[in-house]
Structures are given as structure tokens and as C-alpha cells.
Amino acid sequence: MPVGTAELPVQATTRRRLRVPRTPDVAVVAGYLAVAAWLTSRQWGRPDRLFHQAGDQILFEWMLARAARAVTGVENPLWSDALNVPGGVNLMANTSVLGLGVPLTPVTLLFGSQTAFVVAVVGCLAGTATAWYVLLRRRLVRSRAAAAIGGLICGFAPGMVAQAGAHLHMAAQFLVPVILALVFRAEPAGRVWRYGLLLGLAVTYQVFLGEELLLFVALAAGVFALGYALADRAAARRLAPGLAARIGIGAVVAAVLLAYPLWFQFFGPGHYRGMPFYAHTYQLDVASFPALARQTVLGDGRSSALLAPNPTEENSFFGPGLLVLAVLATAWLWRRPLVRALAGCGAVFALLSLGTPVRLDAEVTELAGPYRLISGLPLLDHVVPARFALVCVPVLGMLVALAADRVARQWAATRSAVRLLWAGALAAALLPLTPTPIRTVSVWPVPAFVADGTWRAYVPAGRTLVAVPPVTNHGRSPAMLWSARTGLAFTAPGGFFIGPKAADDPTARWGAPDRPTSALLRRVADTGELPSITDADRRQAVADLQYWRAAVVVQGELRHGDAVRRTVEALLGPPRPIDGALVWDVRPLVG
Questions:
Q1: How far apart are CA 446 and CA 110, in angstroms?
Q2: Which helix (H) or strand (E) holds 440?
Q3: Quick check: 581 pLDDT over 90?
Q4: At what angle do helices 478-485 and 54-73 cross, to 10 degrees?
Q5: 379 vs 173, higher pLDDT
């Protein structure tokens, strides 16, 4: 993943002028944008569609809407009372992606949270490819075509596409090449402070994009640096003082800027300890590496489902051709310390992604993967093992780019047969990995009662709108989607987030602790089975509505909508149909 500086085609010690992008560079970036737009095409102008991991998109739409609200309302961006009434949500302790939400505020305000989310996906994919292209072109290769191919792999590998459909914080990798370029430089002593300061600023911004990704960058940089030191000890001794100085300065700058946000995350209101799921169970199968992901032209959804924990964690799936090409490129360029360090780094993270015990063809083996050696370490005990394979993506991209550059330079004027053979091998490796548009699923529309603001006549200040079911776990949350699509116009209980188990117990859990009524309604919404409602259930419903400070209960379209309606009727009485929704005005009950 990192970049060696001893082999740079352009010496870093020369002063550079501001470069104006040339037409070919603009064409490459335009191509990346076109690919990213095509991958998201099934959702443009379709408010009734979400990417296949719908709950995750709802979460990030809400986070983008919340960031816009914080900017325009000059509110604390690290906290929100709009969900989980009366507890609130610690946004710094969740994937708030403020680094995307704040700059996308104009898009969110003008076009809504769904458009902002899709624009963010396009920006993450194309931006990551572009950043790697620039780094490769300026620091590692002379061939523009080689850099473009490397950027294409880094930005649009199956793992990137899988993550982009659900996890913005993992797909936003456009700062990774910037951070690595600042860490691995060969600059005179007078510029250590300059690049150390820039490194601290870049790291700070990356925290507001995704902390987990920053951890991967730090680990990969460390593994690469160790591998490079073993491969070229003389260069390592020469470069080590400057590298240590830049990292030290950057760490101080980042620590100062992040002191309060990190305190808020780990000790502020709504903080939690641990994770609400067992991260170590999310691991990859050995057979996933040469397999093809479901989001590729030749992918098989059934087989890929057996080799990855879920569709968003298909982080390997490089296909046999790309792996063979990378091995051949490594063997061909083995004398270069950079290549040996890259290959070692990729191998380490591929092994870590297998978790423990190792799985092969969906069968558990008796082998214990190296992940067991680090699984109990602080921070690493919260990392999803399957995501370690994402480090292999830029490793493969750089190896292929280096090999392509070598072909372009060594046989530029002669041996056309060799160039044709290389082009055929490259096509055979990459064409099967051609991604397809990200799959979507349908979503019920926001009721006009909510979308058009009719609810305002029923909800006074300080009171909440309770969507049915009031989800407080990791399922789809109607209230969260409605809130995002209306710009957080109302407050509501529940939501999809990670919070503490109780006020006096910081153990992590999905959402707020269930109230009896929310658990009852979620069960009916999931199964369609009608429960027997007692007077005790009715009294409990009133108590829960009082806890939530409810003014109105609203039901939109649901899969088991009739069963849910009949259950709420048994609890609260008959509703009024208003603007496409069933509405229970509970102010007389709650007081």
C-alpha cells in the first residue's frame, strides 16, 4: 500500500511548480467518473430504490442530512437529539462521515439525502481511483496508461464496489494515497516540518471520513516499512530519520486537533465500550481470493455468498487472472525492494483476512490463521477481519501498474509480440472483474403526511413523531429514513446506531434498549403474526409513549401492514387516514 521513495522516477527534492492537468489526465479522471456514475445508475432519480444493504444506506443518508443540519444550524456535529429520544446519539462514536457530509451540504440541501448519498458514492470511487492515479503517475511510473490501469484497480476492485453500496466510511479512500505520499518521502531536513504538518492535517480529516480505514493505513504502512527495510537496509537507514520526524510532527498536530472529538467519542454522552457484534466471525474464505464477486459480469451470487460473511464484505474476489498476473509481475520485478515490500505487505493482510479458524470452500478447517495473534489487541479486537483484504487492492493495483510501466518502457519500440501478449494477459485478468451496476431493492415511499409537513399541525415543540414500528435495533428504520429525506424536520425515538446498553452500562448494543411496545411492534412487522393484546399491554404502550414524549404515531406502508395496523388499533384505538398514512393522535393519552 505505501510508496517507496528510493525508486521514484522524479526526485522528491526538486521544487515543483503547480501542474495544470493535461487533456489525457482529464480524460482519465472523466473515465473514472463515468464508471462510478454507471455503477450507481440504478438509483439516480429513483427515490423508491436503495442499494441492496438498505439499512446501511438509510444510516448514511441520515448522517449526511445531519451534517447539513449541523452546518446550517451551527449545531454540535458530534451529537444529535433528533433520534433515540430521550437519550440522543453520540455521532462521533458512530460512522458520521462528517468529512463527506460537511462538503456535501449544498447537495443535501438542494437535492436531498438520497442524491447526496449517491454523489458521495461516485466521489468515493472515482476520487480513490484518481488519487491513486496521480500518485502512481508522479511517484512510481512514467506511463500514463500504466497509472490509469493501476488507479482503475484501486478504485473499482470488487471490494471497493461492495463497500461503496453500503459503507461510505470504507469506500472513502481518496486520502489514503495522500497520507502515504506524505509519510514516504525523501525530503531535505528543512521540509520535514512542512510535510509533517500536512500529514497531521490529512490524518485529522481521515478520522472524520473513517477511523477504521486510518487504522488499516497505519498497519499497512508499518508492515510495508518493515518489509522495505529488510529489502534495502541502506535506503531504510537513510530515510528513517526523516520518516520518523514527519510521523512525530503529524502525530502531534493530529493529537491537538482531535483531542476533543476523541474525548467526546470515548468519554462523552452516549459513549459505549466494545462492539454489538462479534467482529471475528466476519472472515473471508481462502477460496474467495480467486473467485469472482456477485457484482461482476461473470459473478455468481450463490457461490460468493458462501465465501464472504455478507455481500458488502466481498473484499477479495480478485479472480484467478489478476492473482496470476500479480504473481508473475512480482517474480519479474523481484529485484526491486519496492516490489518485495509490496508483495510481503499484501500477503500479510491477505492472511489476516482469513480470521481464525481458516475456512476453505465454506468448510471450517483445523488451521488457525495469524489473525489469532492480534485479535485480542486494543482497537484490533474491534476490526472486521474480512476488511484486511482491502489492503490487497492497492497492492495489486501498484504491482500491475509497475509491470505495465516496465513493459511500456522496455519494449516501447520493439517486440510488438510481447506488448500484445501483455495486453492480452491484462485483458484476461481484468475483464472478468468488470463491475456491474450496484444492485438495488425497493423501499416504501415517505408518506405525504410526513414529506409534505402535515405532521407539524400535530406535533408541538418538545414532542416526537413515532414511526411504526419504532425500530431500535439494526433493522430498517422508517423514522430514520423519513427523518433523512425531510432534512431531520422532526425528532423520533429509536434508530439505527451503536449506543450504550443502559445509562449505567456502557456495553455496546445496536440502537437504544427496547421498550416493550417497540419490541412488540417490530415482532409483528417482521412476522405478520397477530399477538393477543391485554390491558397490561395497553398501559405499557401509554407508558412507552410518555417515555418517548410522543405526540403522534404514524404508520406508512409496510410488508405486514395490516397486521401492524390491527395491533396498534388494539393498543391505541382506530387511526385516522391522512395523506397516505395512518395517524394516531396520542396527545390525549400521553398528556
A1: 18
A2: strand 440-442
A3: yes
A4: 40
A5: 173
The pLDDT value given to residue 416: 74
> At 42, which amino acid appears?
R
C-alpha to C-alpha distance for 499 and 501, rounded to whole angstroms? 7
- pLDDT at res. 17: 54
Tell me the β-bridge partners of 509.
Answer: 499
pLDDT at 552: 97
Nearest to 150 by CA among 403, 425, 510: 403
- Residue 9 and residue 243: Cα distance in Å, rounded? 19
Site of grid cell 484501486: 154
Tell me the β-bridge partners of 292: 318
Query: What does the pLDDT look like over 64-75, one tens digit per residue?
Result: 999 999 999 999
**Residue 214: pLDDT over 60:** yes
Three-state SS at 364: strand
What are the cell numbers at 474? 439494526
DSSP state of 586: -
The angle at the Cα of 135, spanning 199 to 425, to the nearest 5 degrees, equals 145
Rounded-to-integer distance, Cα 207 and Cα 99, Å? 8
Does the N-terminal peptide bond of residue 309 adopt cis geometry, omega within 30 degrees of 0?
A: no
Pairing of β 550-555 and β 581-585: antiparallel
What value, to the nearest 5°, has the Cα angle with vertex 129 and ends 124 and 131? 90
Question: Is the dihedral angle over the CA atoms 577, 582, 583, 586 positive or is it negative?
Answer: positive
Q: Read off the pLDDT band of 188 (50, 70, 90).
A: low
Amino acid at 137: R
Q: Are 554 and 447 in contact (CB under 8 A)?
A: yes
So what's the pLDDT on residue 2?
44
CB 62 within 8 A of CB 160: no
pLDDT tens track for 491-524: 999 888 999 988 889 999 988 888 999 999 999 9
Judged by average pLDDT, the poorest of 120-129, 130-139, 377-386, 581-590 is 377-386
| Secondary structure, 3-state, 12-34 | CCCCCCCCCCCHHHHHHHHHHHH
Phi, psi at 441, each rounded to 5°: -130, 160
- Separation between Cα atoms, residue 484 and residue 487, nearest integer Å: 5
In the prediction, which pLDDT does 391 show? Answer: 98
CA distance between the termini of the chain: 60
pLDDT at 354 (0 to 100): 96
What is the rounded distance in angstroms from the CA atom of residue 224 to the CA atom of residue 383? 20
* CA–CA distance, 140 with 402 (Å, rounded to integer): 7
Are the C-beta atoms of residues 569 and 581 closer than 8 Å to each other?
A: no
The number of residues in the chain equals 591
Per-residue pLDDT at 1: 46
Report angle CA 524, 525, 530 to the nearest 5 degrees.
Answer: 25
Place of cell 464472504: 308
Count, in order, helices (H) and strands (E) of the chain: 23, 12
Q: Please report how many Cα atoms fall inside a 13 Å half-sphere around the Cα of residue 401, on the Cβ side.
A: 34
